[in-house]
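Reopening: structure tokens for the calcium ion complex, inputs below.
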Amino acid sequence: MIKLSILLMILITACNSKNVKLSPTNNLTDSIVKQVESLTVDDFNDMNLRANLGGEWNTEDDSSAGGNSSAIIKLVRGRNKGGGALRLDYVLGPRYEYRFSAFTLTFPEVRDWSGYKGIRFWIRGSGKKMRIELATEPVKDWDFHSYHINKTPAEWTEYFIPFSDFKQGGWGKERVELNLALIYKMYFLASSSIDGEEGFIEIDNMSLEKNHNNR
Ligand SMILES: [Ca+2]
Ligand SMILES: [Ca+2]
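Re-run output (same inputs, fresh job):
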């Protein structure tokens, strides 16, 4: 009887130590850690223009400056044919010199992203130039901190852009540090300024990341 108890104890101990090594447990822990380190801005899977993180997607073009560029957004099928993605179709018109078409994400109140290292998203487009701008309260003259993509990729491609890579154009009156605690809007602009350029940009699975290599 004593021998049987000892055998049972050895068996239980062996099973327990084996369980510790089971990879699904570790994978679950990894997954929870990644959820904490990653914050979804929008996956577009509910097929509306309200972002998961709050705020609304919309369009802007140069018509407010007397231009005749156009910008249309809609939800389309996402990458890998799953869920949704956001699509901008645009034409840059001749009338305004600094012509632009854009889609934007506007928050109802200022956001604090200072705990995050950068922004991750998937993108494809028509091979044209675009830039992303972070609108923060300290910048009063539209010279927002921006990041340029020279050629949008034809196939879905994942980008991670550290916030430290966003720079002001320098044409504004004042140079200020990017204050991630005072974000109120993001712009995604077709920005080549080429008269008559037509194109599209699609984005999906946008998130804020605390770590560069987090996936
Ligand atoms: Ca939504
Ligand atoms: Ca999606």
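The longest helix spans residues 2-21. The domain at 39-209 is CATH 2.60.120.430 (Jelly Rolls). Marking as resolved unless the reporter disagrees.
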